[in-house]
Design brief:
InterPro entries: DNA_recomb/repair_RecN, P-loop_NTPase, RecF/RecN/SMC_N. This protein is an alpha/beta fold and 555 residues long. It contains 19 helices and 15 strands.
Length: 555
C-alpha cells in the first residue's frame, strides 16, 4: 500500500508531503485547484512518460518519491528480490525530471530503467481514469478487461508464447518450401563455385606465407650479400669484427685498477652487448642459411599466387577473404540443399506447435467463456445499483477462423449492451449515451477492481456525469472496496466524498506572482465544511452544514 508521497517542484506544487492510510481516501477541491496533480505525480513514479513542462517554473528539476509498504504484496517482494532490489518490507520509488527534459528513475536507491519502473508499478497501483469510458468504445480493450477480471494472465502469456513459436516455424517452413522449388539452379552454381574453391585449396595462412616467400625469393641475391656482410662485421671477419672489438674493450677495462661503480656498470654493459651481438649473429646466420637463389621455386610461388588472385577477382573479394567465402558457400549449400525429409520434419514441428497452441488457446477460451458470464452478471448487478434497471450487459465471444488465429487467442471479445427491455444488445458505441457510458465504465471498473490483486486502486473523477442517489451508490461501492484495499478517489460529488475514511482537500493560492497548490488532511469540522461546499449554493447555510453532518454521520 502507498504510505507516503513526496512532491518537489512539480507543476504548481513547490513542496508537498502526504502520509496515506489504508481504506478510502477522498481528494476534493475547487475546479482548477490541482487535484489531479497528485495523481499525475504518482503516475510518474509508476513509469509514465515525462517532459520538462512538468517542472515548476524557476526550478531546475522536479522530484517525486513514493513509499510503499509491501509486506502483504508477495508479487512485489519477489520482483524486487529477482532484480536484487529488495529492502525489507518497504519499497521506495523516486523519479527526477530536469528542466531540460531529462529523466532518472530509482528503486530503493538504485538507478533503474523506466521500463522496470513501469513493470514494478503494475504490481503496486492500478489507476482508473476519468476518460476510461472512451476506451470502452475500442473493442481491443474489451479483451484486456475480461482477462484482467478473470486473472488468467499467465495462461494468456503462455498462449502468446506458443503462438509465436508456431508462427515462427510456419514462416521457416514457407521459406524452406519456396527454396525447394527454386534451389536446383542455385545448387548448380554453388556446386561449380565450391568445386573451384576446393581445387584451389587455399588455407587461412597460406596466402601470407606465399607472399612472404615470393618477396624473399625475388630478393635472394641482395639478402645473401647483405647477410654475409653482417656476419663478417659481427663475427666472421678475420681482420676486425664486433665481437673481437668488444673483447678488446673488456681487456682494456680490466687493466684499469679501479673499483669505481661507473666502471663496473660499463663492464656489465659491454658483456651484455657481447652476448647480444653473438645472439644476433646466430639469428642472421640461421636466416641466411635458409635463403637460396631458386628460380624454379620462385616461378611455382608466382604461379600459385596468380591462381589465387584470379579466383579472388572472379568472386569479387579480396584474396584473403577466399577461405571465408568458401565456408559461406558451404553453409549456403547445406541450407539450400535441405532434403524433402528435413522439410517433412519441419512440417511435423509446425503441426506439433499448432497443436500445443490450440490446446492452450482452447483452455483460455473456456476460461473466457466462464468468466464472460460472471462478468456480465456482475456488471449487470452494478448497473442496476447505478439506476440502469433495464440494462443488460453481455460479453460476446466471437470465434476467429484459422486464418485469423493470433497471439491473443481464438476469439474476439466485445462488450454489448441493451439499455431497454426487449431491445437487442448492440455494441456500446451504437447504443450507450454519454451518461450511460460513464455508468457502464464505472460498473466495469468497480467489478474488475474487486478481483484485482493490486493493493492500491486510484479512481480519478470516475463519477463525472453522475449525481444524486446514484452518486451515493458510487460512494458506497468505493468505500466497500476501501474495506479490503487502499482506494484513492478524486471526486466532485459530496455523496462520494462523504463515504471516505479520510479526506484530503486541495487548494490553490497565489503569492509573489506565483501560484501554489497544497493538500491538507481535513479534521471532522473542516470535512463538514468541505462537504457542505460541495453540496452547492452561493452561501453556506445552517441547512447545508446540517445536511453535510447527516451525510457524514451515516458512516
Amino acid at each position: 500500500m502507498l504510505t507516503q508521497l513526496s512532491i518537489r517542484n512539480f507543476a504548481i506544487v513547490e513542496r508537498l508531503d502526504l502520509d496515506l492510510n489504508a481504506g478510502m481516501t477522498v481528494i476534493s477541491g475547487e475546479t482548477g485547484a490541482g487535484k489531479s496533480i497528485m495523481l499525475d505525480a504518482l503516475g510518474l513514479t509508476l513509469g509514465d512518460r515525462a517532459d520538462s513542462d512538468t517542472v515548476r517554473v524557476g526550478a531546475e528539476r522536479a522530484e517525486i518519491a513514493a513509499s510503499y509498504d509491501i509486506t502483504l504484496i508477495p508479487e512485489a517482494l519477489n520482483w524486487l528480490k529477482e532484480h536484487d532490489l529488495e529492502q525489507d518490507s518497504e519499497c521506495l520509488v523516486r523519479r527526477i525530471i530536469t528542466s531540460e527534459g531529462r529523466s532518472r528513475s530509482y528503486i530503493n536507491g538504485q538507478p533503474t530503467p523506466l521500463a522496470m519502473l513501469k513493470e514494478l508499478g503494475q504490481l503496486l497501483v492500478d489507476i482508473h481514469g476519468q476518460h476510461e469510458h472512451q476506451r470502452l468504445l475500442k473493442k481491443d480493450h474489451h479483451r484486456v478487461l475480461l482477462d484482467a477480471y478473470a486473472n488468467h494472465t499467465s495462461l494468456a502469456d503462455e498462449v502468446k508464447r506458443h503462438f509465436s513459436r508456431w508462427h515462427h516455424l510456419q514462416n521457416e517452413l514457407n521459406v524452406a518450401t519456396e527454396q525447394s522449388s527454386e534451389k536446383n539452379a542455385r545448387i548448380q552454381l554453388l556446386s561449380y563455385q565450391l568445386e573451384e574453391l576446393e581445387q584451389l585449396g587455399l588455407t587461412e595462412t597460406e596466402l601470407s606465407a606465399l607472399e612472404e616467400e615470393q618477396q624473399t625469393l625475388e630478393n635472394a641475391g641482395d639478402i645473401l650479400r647483405s647477410g654475409h656482410q653482417l656476419l663478417a662485421l659481427t663475427s666472421d671477419s678475420e681482420d676486425e669484427n664486433a665481437i673481437a672489438i668488444l673483447n678488446h674493450c673488456l681487456q682494456l677495462l680490466d687493466n684499469i685498477q679501479s673499483q669505481s661503480p661507473r666502471l663496473q656498470q660499463a663492464n656489465e654493459l659491454l658483456n651484455s652487448a657481447l652476448i647480444q651481438i653473438d645472439e644476433a649473429g646466430h639469428e642472421i646466420r640461421h636466416y641466411v642459411d635458409c635463403v637460396e637463389i631458386n628460380p624454379e621455386r620462385l616461378q611455382e610461388v608466382t604461379e600459385r599466387l596468380t591462381s589465387i588472385y584470379d579466383v579472388a577477382r572472379k568472386h569479387r573479394v579480396l584474396p584473403e577473404q577466399l577461405p571465408a567465402l568458401h565456408q559461406q558457400l558451404q553453409d549456403e549449400m547445406s541450407n539450400i540443399s535441405r532434403s524433402d525429409e528435413a522439410i517433412a520434419e519441419l512440417k511435423t514441428e509446425v503441426d506439433q506447435a499448432l497443436t500445443s497452441y490450440l490446446k492452450l488457446a482452447e483452455s483460455l477460451s473456456k476460461k473466457r467463456q466462464q468468466f464472460s458470464e460472471k462478468l456480465s452478471k456482475a456488471v449487470d448487478s452494478q448497473l442496476h445499483n447505478l439506476g440502469m434497471l433495464a440494462a443488460h450487459f453481455t460479453v460476446q465471444l466471437t470465434p476467429n477462423s484459422q486464418k485469423t488465429y493470433n497471439a491473443a487467442g481464438l476469439e474476439e471479445v466485445e462488450f454489448l449492451i441493451s439499455t431497454n427491455k426487449g431491445q437487442k444488445a448492440k455494441p456500446l458505441a451504437k447504443v450507450a449515451s454519454g451518461g450511460e457510458l460513464s455508468r457502464i465504465s464505472l460498473a466495469i471498473q468497480v467489478v474488475t477492481a474487486e478481483t484485482s490483486n493490486t493493493p492500491t486502486l486510484v479512481f480519478d473523477e470516475v463519477d463525472v456525469g453522475i449525481g444524486g442517489a446514484i452518486a451515493e451508490v458510487v460512494g458506497r461501492m468505493l468505500r466497500k472496496l476501501g474495506d479490503r484495499t487502499q482506494v484513492l478517489c478524486v471526486t466532485h460529488q459530496p455523496q462520494v466524498a462523504s463515504q471516505g475514511h479520510q479526506h484530503l482537500f486541495v487548494s490553490k493560492t497565489s503569492q509573489k506572482n506565483q501560484t501554489q497548490t497544497r493538500i491538507d488532511l481535513l479534521n471532522d469540522d473542516r470535512r463538514v465544511h468541505e462537504v457542505a461546499r460541495m453540496l452547492g449554493g452561493i452561501e453556506l447555510t445552517d441547512t447545508s452544514f446540517e445536511h453535510a453532518r447527516e451525510m457524514l454521520r451515516v458512516h
